[in-house]
Protein 1
Amino acid sequence: MWASIAWRLFWRELRRGELWVIAFALFLAVGSVVSLSGITQGVQSALMQRSAQFTAADKVLRSSQPFNMELIAQAEQFNVQSARQMQFDSMLFASDMMQLATIKAVDDAYPLRGTLELKQSDNISVGEQAQLRPGYLYLEARLFDLLKLTVGDSLELGMSNFIVGGVIVNEPDAPLSVFGGAPRVLMHIDDVAATQIVQPGSRIAYRYLFAGENADLAQFEAQVEPQLSVHQRWQKMDRESAIGSALERAERFLLLAGLLGIVLAACAAAVAASRYAQRHTKAVAVIKALGATTAQIRLIYGSHLLLVVLFSLLCGVIAGQLAVSGAQLGIQQYLTDYRAEFSWRPLWLGCLTGLVCATLFAARPMWRLANTAAIEVLKQPETQFVLDKLQLITGALAIWGLMWLFSGELVLSIGLFLLCAVFAALLMVTAATLVKLTKPASAGQSSAGKLALANLRRRLWANSFQLITFSLAIFLALLLYFLRAELIGQWQRQIPQGAPNHFLVNITEQQRSILNDFAQTHQITLDKYYPVVRGRLLSINDEKLQQESSKEDRSEQRVGIGRELNLTWLAALPENNQVTSGSWFSADAQAQVSIESELAQRLDISLGDNLAFSIGGQQLSASVSSIRKVDWNSLQPNFYMILSPDLLAEFPATYITAFYLEAGREQLLNQLARLMPTVTVISVDNIIKQVNGIIDQVTIALSFILVIICFAAGLVLVAQVQATLEQREQELAILRTLGARYAFLRNALVLEFAMLGAMAGVFATVLAEAMLLIVQQRVFNLPFTLHYTLWWLGPLLGVILVTTLGWWQLKRLLRIPGAQLMRRVLQG
Amino acid sequence: MNTPEVHIKAVNVAKSVKVTDGSLTILHDISLTINRGESVAIVGASGSGKSTLLSLLAGLDTPTQGEVFLGQQPLHRLSEDERAGIRAANVGFVFQSFLLLPSLTALENITLPAELAGVKDARSRGLDLLLQVGLSERADFFPAQLSGGEQQRVAIARAFITQPAVLFADEPSANLDAATGQKIEDLLFKLNAEQGTTLVLVTHNNDLADRCQRQYQMQAGRFLDINTQGIADVG
């Protein structure tokens, strides 16, 4: 019998529109999670696609052993494309000239991601997606100068003769490091055997490139993993490069955006559910007085919640998926690789969020509603918005649970949650105190102002709770806006205007003066000279290093450095370096070395350890006097090991320097190459261009997410104002009956919301500034600076946002004639 | 002559509520007995405690002290849900502010207690009652579409649908104009007489109280004196 009552009440409540508020809040929670998660996943996937272009594949398996064709066959079974690549250093011979080069041999499938661009001459381009022809070599531009070659000339490599096929314009997986090492050459893999370069013991790097759908790749990787030998391993994302680091930041930011959106939706669900329960207290008391048991009420209203939840989940999932598909069109204009792949993850995340919000936010008020005592039927209805402490606790737990679920990081979620909790508690107390303190000051204010203040005071705790949500919404908008600015600013600082875009490596002592003259003549500003001596780390505290352990990832990725490191000696600590333990060399430092922190950690080196180096056949040792943190994004020459000047000053060194060359003056590079053929010129223009491209696209993606979050925040604010509608209706009816004029009521209303908005804005500003402080110091490693714009923008935003939304929702109440309003109130 | 059967009995009942600075006693040492089929008015000024007494006698609330029996059921010892069960089977209510559920039609409001009690012919009973209260053409109207008098007539029909043994009415005509109030009172007493229901009526209206067989006068939570009138002519 309860079912027919429940069903009838449900449809009538739907018609009355009350259940829609709670349904809409849950829909919002589910929809925003599905869309945010879906789009974030899509954008992340697109960014990974972009990054894949820099590795020419989705996955790279590295090996020191010849190709195992069984792996290639297995990839095919999983619909995964594959390509093979070999890389080695060898000498090129052209007429009477020779040059060491890094040779990369690739097959026809190369590259699986990104584009290979080759050019035959200034006029004839081989075009994008060019394939390499057997019998030809394709050279980096500087090799043409170094070996005095033109396209079509003959060239020897190992035991074979080749024809110069063209210039490499863009090689997708070229090393990103500024010290690319030897000039690069591309050849077809079928020609490698004939050169007879590959001999037992030769140092050849074999790479398998794989590309395909994420799911296929994951299955393939899982299948292959147990078969891998110690010589084979998956290449990790290059976290050290500028692009790797930028991607990591983008991931964190997108995650944060998604995480904070949920908090808003959860608040909307809580407020809407509380309002619904409060409005039905009298009805439940009546039904109970007529003989219904608590269990019957629970079934009736529980079924309402269940139907609302199911409806919201369904609509939320559909709307979320539509948003993801719709966003695809917009985002594709900027992120060409973006594709809305169907994934279960956003769907179950959305549904789980909806269920968590429903059970921990909405179910609690429903539970309380069923406990309403029958005696309430004889009491005056409660119109005041009552804050349920237990709901606050379950809601808080739900928020934390969702934070954990979304971030996947326990510590991050606890930290973020505690910060929010402390903020909420502080806000409640401060808001309540502020509102209480307004009494004496209000004496001289206009009567509209007095009424506004009286309204704020009367709904003290309810207003404090509203303040939290208002503040949270404004805080999110401010944080996203400023964090985005911070992020972009950080990237732009990384590539400042006029930053060196060309590096000169291998400069001898004698060439320094020639180079200085050249720079002066052509009005080029040279950076400082860094002396470089190449050497190997032999042992740590007399413990000899094994080949494998000393061959760490980073040096392998820096093609050309190989097993040897660039050692330098410097009296002063370089810019972008920070001593984290120990102290920098004193003026009379003897036999000391400063080591980069990550390398120190990887090789388990600590202060005072004794390191032995082999330099040019001589051995020397130094004790570790400091460990440094190095900003690898600085696009400046950086060193793992810096020795004290006394150790290396006597060794013959070469130098590195850098300079900025404006676009259109590239011919100077050829002049420089002819003037000093042994000096290697490395251009970082391409890297800068690539990083800038990613920044542009990430910025667009973040703006999109910011819009979604602001939209969600606006809707939460609407739900908040809706929660006080009944009480306001009652108050207005009384005031109108007592003769209050429209202008008076309007002014009081606007002032009330403006004050609330200003307070929320100030709180939001304080929190946003605090959060930016953490982000600046922890994420970007920057000194803290105040964001002055924030301090006027926050409160202004609060006033405009809250007043507009409040006015928009309540203006119709003001226009209802007094008698009609009174009748509505009396009828409940 | 048969001894009248005691239907409602209160023994030394007191009710206190918590207030910010301690507790406030609303009812002091109230004892009464109401026989089956009897109509009794509890009269008093606003705040005298008459509605509180009604809530205790009807099992909407429990006393702080004393005992309340409805038939053989000790209401003071029962839980909220046990009392709800007794109300569903035995009690009907008419409230001052009607208290119809705004989202249900007139007919649905009337049948609600019967449906909660699992009565199978709730709808036909409801329609019959609608006819009796003169609102058969308003069956599908929502409360907001009805006048105050019509709403109270629906409330009276709702009160009688489960054919309760006892009907509690709290100021049933206070929210209505004099003429409408009179009609409502007539309807209430008519149905009460037809069904032989025990009627407990709370009012500050002496004319209405005079229509009951007995009156209890209340002041500051206590009975002033017990007036045992002869059976009034309720025809």
Protein 2
Amino acid sequence: MSSRIKLAILSFALAAMLLPTSAWASPTKVVEWWHIGTAANDKAMNQGFADAYMKLHPDVQINITVLENEAFKSKLTTVMQSGSPPDVFQTWGGGVLAEYGAAGLCRDISKEVKGTAWGNSMASGVWATYTSNGHIYAVPNDAGCITFWYNKDLLAKVGYTSFPTDWDDFLTLVKKLKAAGITPIALAGNDKWPAMHMWSYLALRLGGASLFSDTVSGKNAKGFNDANWVKAGQMLMDLAALKPFQDGFLGATYNDEAALVGNGQAAMELMGQWAPNVQRDNSSSKAGIGDKLAAAPVPAIKGGKGKVTEVIGGGGGYALGKNASDAAVDFVKFLTNVENMITAAKTSGILATTKGADVGITDPNAKMVKALVDKCTFFQLYLDQAFPPAVGGAVNDAVQTILAGTATPAQACAAIQTAFANK
Amino acid sequence: MYGGMGKPSILTLAVLLGPALIVFTALVIVPVFEAAVFSLYKWNGLGPMVEFRGLANYSQFIRDAIVHKALWHNLIIAVVSLAIQLPLAMALALIVSDRRFKGAMFFRTFFFLPYVLSEVITGVLWQFIYHPQYGLVRAIWAILAPAAHAPALMGNTSTVLWAILVVIVWKYFGFHMTIYIAGLQDIPQEQIEAATIDGASGWQVFRSVTLPGMRTSIQLSVFFSIIGSFQLFDVVWAMGKGDPVNAGETIVTYMYKIGLQRFNIGYGGTIAVCIFLICLVFNLFYQKALVREET
């Protein structure tokens, strides 16, 4: 082969390589967006948001990756460990986001939101979940809390027209339901976290806000060995002794739990704002129990320091990866403007954080949960999410050992404290 | 040994071994060494490793009650595989290899089917079978013992492991059966005929002709059973993540929880290295024992 032909081939190859790049390299700023809205309506809505933004900003190219919740978590962990996060991605804040932030994998947007019109477009309380050491790594779009979700018809059968507001009365209700042959509470014992919410709410009602803040800050030297945490474990055991949960609950997943309530086979579950959606999805009719479903705050405990206005909850938001451009930040600003948040509230049933987006929330139960969050006197992020995964996992494990009877409440709390002290 | 070709040249070796060696090094050797490095640190997998712990993770491994529990489960799984699964597979292999048996081909395929299913599908399938509200077990129970409560096999810490063992035997006996069928085909029919003519009973033929002739197959299937038991993950994970309270935990599910769910890559690396060492030591001893037996 003569060197001239070689040269010709090489130049041709080079040209072929450069051609597509130059075609794509037009002034496009690429934003990689990962979200978990796998339902058809969520997918279409998010694509609509991206299309609308690209129309307004022709120089921005938004690439969407849709992942199922669990797949998203493991894939995100992998890209985080390789140091290349997407620009915009779903987050639940708390300990996991804080770890990503501390490792320098998220863009700090404090400058863009602190004291700005964008920052003030949301209630000041909603930012804490996404803030770590003074840095803000994400913008919330959804904030709700854990409540009991109950079947009005099944409660009416045993003479309850409203949900108990006192724990003793709640236990009476459980006994009456049980006596009537109705499974009082559906519980996903294998997934652990639903049971964990039950224990942490009992602790909140017993010890109040100060128990949580002092344990987390280390001001309470006993930490999770504090008598209130242990007593909450004891009360959970007492509840379990009434056998209020479905058969084999220790092996049940959250989908099993939602199916039982959604099919009208169990009277209630303790769950977050997404409960009605998941119940519908897992019910055999795909319609859930409709307007028979109602939400109610966790009852107060006589003699406890906690008030019913203190809640445990959480939500979601848009986190920004370390390489997120200003265009990516601006896109998140667009996603969280009031018009788009109204659309999101209507489409996905999120409890929109942006002020004025409440008009998108029409379901009375969702409104009730939203009001509980808006008027709360103390807000605690889900205990398993508030800490780094090593501690959150230990909390979940410990509650399962209480329910399985393999550890006493004191032993379970000591196990949490050990993980907490080593974090 | 190499016939007339003499020793292969360096170039031949490089061309033939090179690609495989590069892939093996990049995907097996390097990660093993990486895990060994992680195992000396407290590290969440994000950012640089800074907190050197020396052998502290290893002493934690030795003292960790869940590690003991998981390894004990692995051992039970290995023993059940050897004591129940392999004899079952052998018996079935003998039946379906019998030439007089007309439906042999059908049963061979039928018994091999569970092995074809992916591990995750198997796990999900059995989750349905065991489901305490809608499951097949409950339906059968309702016919046989309508008065008694159906057992929630995956929700009771004392039954979880056994429920998983049933699935493991169900899933893998077909694989071992196939190894044995292949082994049986290697035994010359004349030997069996000769033994029969000499007046050997069926059992005597099996004991003195078939079994010795299948030594290699049995060695292979014992090896796969034991190594497989220590690497077991997917089925257990799909059936309930080894829970409640680690009742079905295996050492690999525990490694996954620690490393990838709890972000404790350091300790997860320690567990990985220990699994690797257990398998390596077993492999070396097993090979050595086989060589000794053959000489």
